[in-house]
Design brief:
This protein has 336 residues and is of the alpha+beta class. It has two domains: 152 residues, Beta-Lactamase (2-Layer Sandwich), CATH 3.30.450.40; 152 residues, Alpha-Beta Plaits. It has nine helices and 13 strands. It has a six-stranded antiparallel β-sheet, sandwiched between helices. A five-stranded mixed β-sheet has the order 8-9-7-12-13, with helices on both faces. Helix 1 packs antiparallel against helix 3 and helix 3 runs antiparallel to helix 4. The radius of gyration is 22 Å and the shape is globular. It comes from Dyella caseinilytica. It is an enzyme of class 2 (transferase). This is diguanylate cyclase.
Length: 336
Amino acid sequence: MRIDVPDDVLEKWQNIVDTMAKLIAAPASLIMRVVDNDIQVFVSSKTAGNPYRVGDRERLHQSGLYCETVIRSDHHLLVPNALEDDDWKNNPDIKLNMISYLGFPIRWPDRTPFGTICVLDNKTNAYSDLHENLLMQFRDVIEQHLQLIHMNVQLGIAKAEMEVLNHQLQILASTDSLTGTLNRRRFDEIFETEWRRAAREKTALSLLLIDVDHFKHINDDFGHLRGDDALKMVALVLRTMAARAGDVVARYGGEEFAVLLPNTSSEHAQQLAESIRRAIARTVLFKVEGGDITSTVCIGIASQVPSHAGDPHSMLQAADTALYRAKLSGRNRVEI
């Protein structure tokens, strides 16, 4: 059965591929869809140098295309340079000068293939772990959309629309509208729950408090809209890096974020915090005439095995104290 993707979802997918192309600095970012026996360009980034047009399609079976392998293997594919790879040097995308590829499978809720999400570059590109995590996060968002679409078909439009609306309202009530992370109220609720769970199961719980260094200068020098862009990018890095099931990312206030890490030791929390600090320092928050704008963060860490006699507020205070030490020690630091 052919299931249509609603226009409002297509708009979100267009934003996804445009964002991917921008963040990875690649000329082409695509969502491909299996249509009968063909593979079709379903959504294509609006980027300079992108040779792929929506509606372009090829026979899928034995096509030699990157996406055929992704769909057939149901696994991601990374080709840093097809010209240097005997398995890929003659694939059809070479004719379009697309020599590097990173793609992941997209599946319907019943695990049958919908298509792929991918980026392609006209130069050698090995892509980073951050790029791979980014694609996986966006792939998960798309599969969530497909699950809702499939639900609409199975349950009937009227009933499904009501359920989707209620779900969206719940999300809106718990989400920070600027960054897409959880808001402080919802974070505090989850923190209480995870504290009790960790105390019951006697497992480690870790908390990171993250503050953007000299954020006031960004607002003063470039304006609050650019400041908002910076916060969105920081949030995206945090959601990409803290991506395990159970990890919680929230905007805790202003330019401060919180990351809750269930079942995570102090050592592993420090390793993740350092990875986040380095990733944000390398991330372009936004572009202005004359260059790229970057920034750094301070991170305070608190880790413990909670007890029923304690409360999460003490852990929050410990993380806040560590964050304050990081600021006093020169910023762009992790403290515990």
